[in-house]
Amino acid sequence: MHMLLQLCLVYALIVECSAQKPGACPPGGIRITVCMSDCETDRDCPGAQKCCKYSSCMFTCEKPIFGKYRPTGRP
Length: 75
Hints:
Blueprint: H1 2-17, E1 36-37, E2 50-55, E3 58-62
């Protein structure tokens, strides 16, 4: 029984760790006041896309960016 509990714990940790995909979310240029959620974790997004948070209630799947992002200011 103890071994089964350990296996369940290891499985849960593996699943949680694999939920994060590489890369970063692109800067949020989306200004929408309606709450919507396409995803909860990266695992919910297709392919290499990441689940990105753009407001307190807006999560959407986006193509990740790699490297250092340096904001250039507002357009």
